């Protein structure tokens, strides 16, 4: 099938690369020439394990290319995926401006086309967007009759760091279609994948995406709240999580307590769903609480640090981990941002390290950085682990203690063996261990 993908961000690139890998003719479109040049040189404009290789392979066997010729390439394809960003505005509402300009471009492209065409929204959008914003815009700009256009919504459930694996081994594919053209086209495109394919309306697909992300975020905030209770009652939350996770209705996944969730999806999506519901006069108490707990967690890390150091002013504090999770350079909504900012405001001498996230973090906060964990922790009064990278999990604790000035070790992700840390002589504290 001839596929055009608008937007060469995270979702667009992974979608384009994996569809090309299935043998489709894919063109990835973006207005930014620099990104397209990078892509056409076989390099991924974003850091994602395995993506470079898949892009190179697609370019080599001519199933994949990038282009800034947006309208012409849309016209020459059978199906167009909209994979543009849907950021939040300052009130948490979804900003649909990229969605609107993508649908206008599609409308203009289709003006001179005589064959049928399918448009699928893959960007995360609030319910009704595909039917009430994208479709009318395309019809208006193209002058097309409704019956020639296939319209659908097909959400992605990709995790950063394992996006290629997730795209190639989906748990389920949600086929939200407003008509038979979109339904049949998506079923054909995804026929190589043997997982469950759920057919529904576009608005249902839109809500499935938000509900899934919000549920996972809520699960994290819930366990964080229980972990905070475990802290004061002298209970090890890891054992509680194990006991909970053995119930197949609960499942053992997403029960890791700590500094809270970050990233480009969970915080934005929970806020957008709550804001969209409020606009429709449904107040979400659950989502509000999910966000509140998530804001509290990094503050608990700061409090633990203050309790141990007395005052933090003038103390050297090493922050290990700036990315919102391991194996990514993405620092968006990272909990480290809150911890670093608060400690700097309180006058601490903060020095940070992250294997991949330092350049991106530098754009948010001008904090001192060290090129290695060893240099960051040299003569530190306190070390705080904020991201559970393997390099931190494998730290030699005896050498770490020798290098430090003090012995306070705060583990915001339960990355280390608490018994070992105690044995070595650390004043070790983590969320969910009394
Ligand atoms: C998430 C969803 O998993 C994915 O399906 C969706 O498409 C996009 O959002 P991602 O943001 O890449 O993916 O990261 P994920 O691995 O889900 O982790 C999100 C955040 O939750 C991270 O900050 C992580 O540290 C935190 N987390 C995760 C916990 O604090 N505890 C857990 O048990 C799991």
Structural features, described:
With 434 residues, the chain is α/β, with parallel strands linked by helices. It has 18 helices and 14 strands. The protein has 2 domains: 2-200, 3-Layer(aba) Sandwich (Rossmann fold); 214-430, Rossmann fold. The protein has helices at residues 10-21, 33-40, 51-60, 70-75, 97-110, 129-142, 163-168, 180-189, 202-233, 237-245, 266-279, 285-309, 335-345, 358-362, 373-377, 390-393, 397-403, 418-424, and strands spanning 2-6, 25-29, 64-67, 79-82, 117-121, 149-153, 172-177, 196-200, 316-320, 349-353, 368-369, 382-385, 408-411, 427-430. Helix 12 (285-309) packs across helix 13. The chain is elongated, with a radius of gyration of 24 Å. The model has no long low-confidence stretch (mean pLDDT 97).
């Amino acid at each position: 099938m001839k596929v055009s993908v608008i937007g060469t961000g995270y979702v667009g690139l992974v979608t384009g690369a994996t569809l090309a890998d299935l043998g489709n003719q894919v063109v990835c479109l973006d207005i930014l020439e620099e990104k397209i040049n990078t892509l056409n040189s076989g390099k991924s404009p974003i850091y994602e394990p395995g993506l470079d290789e898949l892009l190179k392979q697609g370019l080599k066997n001519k199933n994949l290319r990038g282009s800034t010729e947006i309208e012409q390439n849309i016209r020459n394809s059978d199906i167009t995926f909209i994979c543009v960003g849907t950021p939040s505005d300052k009130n948490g509402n979804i900003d649909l401006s990229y969605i609107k300009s993508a649908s206008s471009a599609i409308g203009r492209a289709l003006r001179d086309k005589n064959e049928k065409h399918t448009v699928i929204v893959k960007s995360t959008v609030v319910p009704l967007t595909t039917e009430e914003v994208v479709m009318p815009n395309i019809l208006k700009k193209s002058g097309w009759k409704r019956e020639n256009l296939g319209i659908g919504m097909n959400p992605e459930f990709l995790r950063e760091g394992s996006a290629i694996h997730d795209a190639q081994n989906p748990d389920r594919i949600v086929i939200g279609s407003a008509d038979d053209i979109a339904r049949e086209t998506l079923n054909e495109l995804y026929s190589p994948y043997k997982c469950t394919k759920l057919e529904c309306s576009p608005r249902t697909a839109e809500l499935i995406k938000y509900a899934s992300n919000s549920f996972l975020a809520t699960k994290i905030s819930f366990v964080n709240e229980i972990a905070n209770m475990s802290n004061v009652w002298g209970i090890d939350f890891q054992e509680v999580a194990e006991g909970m996770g053995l119930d197949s209705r609960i499942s053992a996944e997403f029960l890791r307590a700590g500094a809270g969730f970050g990233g480009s999806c969970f915080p934005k999506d929970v806020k957008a769903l709550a804001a969209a519901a409020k606009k429709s006069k449904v107040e979400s108490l659950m989502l509000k609480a999910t966000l509140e707990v998530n804001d509290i967690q990094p503050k608990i890390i700061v409090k633990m640090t203050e309790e141990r150091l007395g005052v933090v002013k003038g103390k050297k504090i090493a922050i290990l981990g700036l990315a919102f999770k391991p194996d990514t350079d993405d620092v968006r909504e990272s909990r480290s941002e809150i911890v670093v900012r608060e400690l700097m405001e309180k006058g601490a001498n903060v020095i940070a390290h992250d294997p991949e996230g330092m350049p991106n973090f530098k754009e948010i906060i001008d904090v001192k950085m060290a090129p290695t964990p060893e240099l960051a922790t040299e003569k530190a009064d306190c070390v705080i682990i904020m991201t559970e990278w393997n390099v931190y999990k494998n730290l030699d604790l005896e050498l770490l203690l020798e290098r430090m000035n003090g012995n306070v070790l705060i583990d915001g992700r339960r990355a280390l063996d608490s018994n070992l840390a105690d044995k070595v002589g650390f004043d070790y504290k983590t969320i969910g261990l009394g």
